[in-house]
Design goal:
Blueprint (H helix, E strand, L loop, with lengths): L7 H14 L7 H10 L1 H19 L1 H14 L13 H15 L7 E5 L4 E4 L5 E4 L3 E5 L6 E12 L8 E5 L2 E5 L3 E6 L3 E8 L1 E6 L5 E4 L2 E6 L4 E6 L12 E8 H12 L3 E3 L7 E7 L5 H10 L2 E5 L2 E5 L5
Parallel strand pairs: 5-6, 15-18
Antiparallel strand pairs: 1-4, 2-3, 3-5, 4-5, 5-8, 6-7, 7-10, 8-9, 9-12, 10-11, 12-13, 14-16, 17-18
Helix pairs in contact: 1-3, 1-5, 2-3, 3-5
Amino acid sequence: MSAPRQSDDDVFEQAVAWHRALARDDADWDAYMSWLDQDPAHRVAFDEVALLDRMIEDHAPSLQREEDAGVADHAPQNTRKPLWIGGSIAAALAAAIALPMLTKTPADMVYHAAAQSRSITLAGDTRVTLAPRSSLVVQAGDPTRLRLAAGEAYFAVPHVAGRTLSIRAGDYDVRDIGTKFSVNLTPSFLTVAVAEGNVSVQPHTGNAAAVPAGKQLLAERGRGRARLSTVVASDVASWRRGRLVYADAPLDVVVADLSRYTGKRVSVDQRLRNRKFSGVLAIANGPGMFRDLAELMSISSRPDGAGVRFIPVGER
């Protein structure tokens, strides 16, 4: 028996709560993605709340003047509800968005891809393609200050004199003045692959490394170790063409990708942690990619609750 459908008011209140929660550094992105995947209406509501937040921000000076004038004149509050919202939606939006917008700095804009990839064009003609279940934050509404909060994204950045694009990904900053590259953030690794131009990748506690076209940087998060390897330009963000292409990739990176593309939790036996994978997986195979990877690596997979776990051959 399916769960009863939520009311529009409930969905909008949840969208408001998530919009505020994602502005915090400790935001639970996995829980947010799970909420989005529960119902297509969640994505629609979140986008509408984000748009409303942007509209309020754009008109913040005039809203502040109205607020100041009302206080000075001791005018009674207008109790008429807005025509376009009502009930608890109006209360939630007024409390959670409109009033804080009078005093806070410009809002972050959050873009999320649910089960499908999503294309975004930012101001300045920067084009971004988000992989499934990935999230990008435009910090303080500035299209040159981005944060990859989860997953993977491909960036096509036109060169503009005097402009530098900065992308925060975990504890690293990726800087670019005009090129094409991808950034993949997993719990254990950061991967930056460059198809055209050059980018700079700098840990928050170390020196920057230059990554030119045809190279890929793999950094182990929390340990400060990184290595450069060669990558074919057409393999950068190959997921845009339905393939996941790997060359000596840590198994942790591969299973993080599979989790995003299948929507299932994927874990790896500790004895396989140091294994590497080179090969190609077809995204169209869906959960069949678990079998494909196991066969290519001569390992086994088994159900693990609602997810999948990779284990050595012969184990159960």
